[in-house]
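Q: Structure tokens for this one, please.
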Amino acid sequence: MRLLDRYLLRELLVPLGYCLCGFLLFYVAFDLIFQISRFLDNHLLFLDIVEYYLVTLPELLVEQVLPVSLLLALLYALSQHSRHNELTAMRAAGVPLWRLSLPYFTVGALLGLLVFVIGEWWIPSSADRSSEILLRRQVPDSEIGMIYKLEFSNPADGRDWNIGRFNRKTSEMINPKVQWRQANGSVRTLDARYATYDGGQWCFYGVKIWDRRPGDLDVFSGSNAVLRLSLLETPSWFNGEIKVNEMNPTQAAKGQGTQLSIREIRDYLRLHPRTEKRAMLLTQLQERLAAPFTCLAVVLIALPFGAKAGRHNVFVGVASSIFICFGYFILQRISSGLGVGGYMPPVLAAWLPNLVCSVLGLVLLWSVR
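A: Here is the predicted structure, written as tokens:
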């Protein structure tokens, strides 16, 4: 069976490569038409534009291009096999359809793993990196990624942070003020000129400390030139807070705007279990988990369409893929909007498109004889 598997893989991977390259080239070409004035206004150089697309294309790849390309390539490959009676010959030789589809599911699983890796470690930071590229010729490096007047609360440990300026690139704080409640009911306030994060610890410089017992005024407790503290709050927590503050329900329902990793969402929900953005965050969390399985759902829905293509023209497969993708993305956007708005459980909102495609594919696959 190895020879047959290699043949089926070759007949799939060649059109898959063409589809991926074609969709990406079309996207870059059309996006340049609308973005070129923006690039010129920001005085970007050619290499800056190339870097911008290298940063932003992975998000488009995993969310739209990859599933569509896999579906189109599968329908094309299966239609060609069926058109030349190759599927009939393979099944007549005693090879069941599920065994023929094993290479396709292997490709779908590998692409799903790629979707998860890119979605977890690349996409959450792509928005910040693309913004830095757009601003690098107009804004000083010291101002890129700077957030003013950041407030952060850690109720579990009784700490509240009030930061004059926070640099997202270097994690340096200017004029940080930290208040935390002690076990005896007193409140300690730490005021510093600036702070850095190094070796898993916060290093505060120019520190002044006040203590206040219940019912008393603040009492000056001392000062330190440098104070190192091991606190649970890490730069990723502050970045997650900033991202959530920037999230917009309308953009989230459209699959646009700020994207968070699974770790960032879980950290934020652990700190803010009753946040008003809970439905939106849980929906995005479930969408992160459901995204890798989209490629497997694509294989399930493509198999019966391609296997039943007969001697039809190859354009039947193209038309089928367009119809399926159109229906899938409409269902995805509707269910995502309902999940973000709190009208549908986040789990159902994120998994419904994959569930519908998988069930439909299994029903149609069962009818293939």
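A few notes: The chain has two domains: 2-135+286-367, 146-232. Strands lie at 146-154, 159-167, 173-181, 187-191, 194-198, 201-212, 219-229.
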